[in-house]
Amino acid sequence: MLEAPFDPVKLAIPFFILAILLEIGLGRLRLASAEYEARDTAASLAMGLLRGIPALLTAGLIFAATVWVWEHRVLTVPFDAWWGWVAIFFLDDLIYYVFHRLSHERRFWWAAHVNHHSSQHYNLSTALRQTWTGGLAGTWLLWLPLAFLGFSPAQIAIQQGISLVYQFWIHTEAVGRMPAWFEAVFNTPSHHRVHHARNPRYLDRNYAGILIIWDKMFGTFQAELDEEKPRYGLIRNLGSFNILTVAFHEWIAIGRDLASARSLREVGGYLFGPPAWSPDGSRDTSKSLRARWAARQSAGATPAE
Amino acid sequence: MTEGQPAPRPPSSFRGVRLDAIDIVPDSCTSQEPAIPIPAFLSQLAVSGVAVLVIVALAAAARLARSTPPLDEAAARALLADDFPDAQIDQVWLAADGAAALALSGSQALYLFRLGDAWVARDLAWSDVASAPVRGGRLHLPLSDVSPRLARPALAGWAPETA
Ligand SMILES: [Zn+2]
Ligand SMILES: [Zn+2]
């Protein structure tokens, strides 16, 4: 099957709107923690609203590539087989973990993902601060093995939509902790707050989509600590609410760096090194910030003379 | 929630592409309805746009922004420590309106300014700050991605040549 009989994301749009209104209402009545700044909210929602336009540029290519791979599949997973849905649930979520980790650890893909992290707020509107350049960055290639295995393009699209819809509700400070069994297995508001935090301790942690188990398996899990409240946003926050800045600032920064590159090594580093890679190591990367934070921690733990 | 994900799609499309525009017949669920026409796409966009405006208006009316009172020196130091935890701050100047601060840290200048209900920090060479022009009573810092102007009256005791 090529065509998805329904689109989870489209079905969920009224729920997105109502949930944001509910969060604002609960915040207003002081029944839940919710911080909104109107221009920040406008930027987040505009990114989500308008992302369909740049997506049109690459949608045809992504569709054609997925269909072509599926036509060369090794198996055929029936669309109505329950085991197929169980399998794709886990496989899609594992691919999401890989995609998301790549999107943080390598600058070329970070340039497409950074906008999602560019708000200093963490509320349901932040969830809709979606990329405009993800298609161009090519991370959709990571999902092609599912088509090669035999999952239909429609099934892949639906599972991706389910994952996207799941991840909406976790962008909130209104929910503290879910029950322990749920926190142990699923990505939750608490886990994803850590992911959006710029405290060194929390950098590059919790890449999960639906299941947090991947972070626990691959060593990137960090629990939210009561004594360290997340501070949201980027290592160096944006100085503007302009959505063009939000969407393209890191691509522009890459272009500027490439223009100054003096060797192939520098070109490679600026494009595919970690975000903030520099030839002389003078810029702060997540790794260097975490290392200095760890050094401060251990120095602080040593009694002063 | 992030990217790599499909955009919201019309019902007779896959990943935003009109299936009837592609020379492949689905093996099931063959759709007889025409792909969503441009006017419908635009009207959906318009409806969503109205929803966005309503949400933004309600978010503003609900007054849920963080409180960001004018900076004093202690607040400026604490905020700069978030962004520059290793920096030794030698001296701090506050902008008159309390919406920005400048700090000297060795040969570096650390700059902090309010954006909406949050704070943004940058660092630059102190020599660039010391030679930064003052126009219209405001100090103009040379930063590539933002164009900060600090209200000079608030930069109490501003004398970069002695710093
Ligand atoms: Zn992320
Ligand atoms: Zn997120």
Terminal-residue CA separation of chain B:
47 Å
Mean pLDDT of chain A: 95
Question: What is the tally of beta strands of chain B?
Answer: 9
If you average the pLDDT of chain B, what whole number results?
77
Q: How much helical structure, as a percent, in the residues of chain A?
A: 55-70%
Low-confidence stretches of chain A: none
Shape of chain A: globular
Strand percent estimate of chain A: under 5%
Gross morphology of chain B: elongated
Q: Estimate the strand proportion of chain B.
A: 15-25%
Please count the beta strands of chain A (DSSP E, at least 2 residues each): 0
The tally of helices of chain A reads 15
Our count of helices of chain B gives: 3
- Which secondary-structure class do the elements of chain A indicate? mainly alpha
Rounded to an integer in angstroms, the radius of gyration calculated over CA atoms of chain B is 26 Å
Order of helices and strands of chain B: EEHHEEEEHEEE
Q: What's the end-to-end separation of chain A, in Å?
A: 71 Å
Q: What's the helical proportion of residues of chain B?
A: 10-25%
Please report the two chains with the greatest interface, counting residues with C-beta closer than 8 angstroms to the partner's C-beta. A-B, 86 and 59 residues
Provide the list of bound ligands, each named once: zinc ion
Low-confidence stretches of chain B: 6-34
Question: Can you characterise this structure?
Answer:
The complex is a heterodimer of chains A (about 300) and B (about 160). Chain A has helices spanning about 10-30, 40-50, 50-70, 80-105, 105-115, 125, 135, 145-150, 155-170, 180-185, 190-195, 215-220, 245-260, 265-270, 285-300. By secondary structure, chain A is an all-alpha fold. In chain A, helix 4 crosses helix 5 (about 105-115) and helix 4 (about 80-105) crosses helix 9. The model of chain A has no long low-confidence stretch (mean pLDDT about 95). Helices cover about 25% and strands about 25% of the residues of chain B. Mean pLDDT of chain B is about 75; it is low at about 5-35. Classes of the chains: A mainly alpha (about 300), B alpha+beta (about 160). The interface between A and B is large, with 86 and 59 residues. The structure holds zinc ion (2 copies).
